[in-house]
Every structure is written in C-alpha cells, then in structure tokens.
Amino acid sequence: MIINPQTLRGIYVAFNTLFNKAFEAEDPLYKLIATVTNSTTDAETYAWLGDIPGMREWIGDREIQNLTASDYTIKNKDFELTVSVPRNAVEDDKIGLYNPSVQMLGQSAAQHPDKLIFDLLASGFVAKCYDGKPFFSEEHMVGKKKVSNLGKEELSMETYIAARAAMMSFTNAKGEPLGLVPDTLVVPPALEAKARDILVADFINGTKNTMQGTAKPLVVPRLAGHDKEWYLLCTSRPIKPLIMQQRKAPKFVSLTAETDENVFMKKTFIYGVDYRGNAGFGFWQMAYGGGHTA
Description:
By secondary structure, the chain is α+β, with helices and mostly antiparallel strands. It has helices at residues 5-25, 87-91, 99-122, 157-168, 192-199, 261-266, and strands at 34-38, 43-45, 73-75, 77-86, 140-142, 145-147, 150-151, 184-187, 203-204, 207-208, 216-219, 230-233, 242-255, 268-281, 287-290. The chain has a domain at 5-51 and 75-178 and 241-285. Helix content is 26%, strand content 26%. A hairpin with a 2-residue loop joins β9 and β10 (207-208). The mean pLDDT is 91.
C-alpha cells in the first residue's frame, strides 16, 4: 500500500468507525446507579448536596429552602488509552490485523466509567462524601440526630430486611419521611446466589419469599474481591446515589503525519482515545452498605 495523506485519512475513517461501533455496542452498568452530569470547567462543586427538603403547607410567606449546604467538589481527571501500528504493517497491507486493537479502545472507553463508579462505591466505607463522613457511616447528622446507613453484617434475608427498613425510615432535618424505596441490590459475583435467593426465589426453605421482587439484583464483576460487601440503593429519583461527571466525551485521535516524531523516529502510527471526567458521591441517604469489616 502506498502511504500518502489520502491513504492515512482512509485508515483513520475506518478505524474511527470501528471505534464508534465498539463503543456503542457496550452496555455499561454505571448508568443504573449514577447520575451523569456535564462539567464545564476543571472541577464542579455540588453545593445542593445536603438535606433533602419536602413540600409543606403554604402558611404565610414562602419558606425558602437552603440548598447551599455543601462544598463537595468533584475534580475532573484525564484518562487515555493508546495503541501503535507499525508503518510497515500499513505498507504491507496488514492493517486489518489491528482492527481488534481499535475495537478494544472503543470497548475500554465505554467501560471505564464502570471502573470509576464501582471502585468509588466499594470505597464508600472509608471515602468521605459531602458531609465529611464516609459515604457509608453511622455518624451522618440529620439535624441534631445521628443516622446510620452502614451495616456490618454479611448479606442475609434478615440484614436485607433491616437495611430496607432503615432506608425507608430516613427523614429530612424537619422529621419528614423522605419516601425513599430501595430498588437495587448491588453485589459482587460471590454474593449473586444470596442476592437471587432474597429477591428472585419464590420460596426459601419451603416458605413463601415475601421479599421477592422488592429490588433488582445487580451483579457487578468489577466488585470481585469485595466478596462480603453489598449495597442497597434507591435509583428511582432524578439524582442517583453516585455521580458520573463528564467534562469531555471519549474522542478517537491519531498521530500519523510524516512530521510526527513517532512516525519519523520510530516508524509507528499512533491511535488512541482520551476523555475527561470523574466520579463522586451523591446523597448518602439513597444508599446503604453492608458486610464491610475494617
């Protein structure tokens, strides 16, 4: 193959098409538990994270709710993945051998938010959220009252029922019930059978399963290694328990000009993907974590 700008442009278009098809074919899990927000600068401050207000009877003047209870900030980070193609492979018409590498770029770019979100969820027993406490903690303050969204026991029917009751009992600072109904039980592969027994099975030891269908099990391979930890979430509200902040969407890029150093010095064409963003915690009230031992 003769290498010229037209040839290289054709290769880029073909690779870009492969990248986009692979990217769009992926069905990442993070959107099930995280709200995707757009960022316009290097970091975003989520001042509205704090108490969750409720409606009240309108008596006298309107009561303006304070939505600036937090200075919780999510800083954007840069992420990339890059592959190289030898110039000789292009000259020898072997460019097709590198199609899987480009498809891998697309798959990895689509899946990477899963890594950010589920790694963050697993860190929630120690990583702090907007109130300065770990996301899963016994020390959250609602008004003057301590509230816990942390359970130390392993997953079982009893601990699931207790976590569900705790979440549905959460109130705001004025004592008004938040009305949160958990709908997703996130578990590692090691707890899949237990989660399905609790939420899917018709009967348990010959007894009708009264918790069947009260939430959906979400088995996350990326949580392997956190084999005793489990997470009960409410994902039905406009704001989900976690936040995936996107500054720049994944973009397929290349360095293939004759004057690029990699081509001139090393006879390689470079293709890659990069994006900017990060993950953060939303309202702790929408999550309950169990099974963690310090």
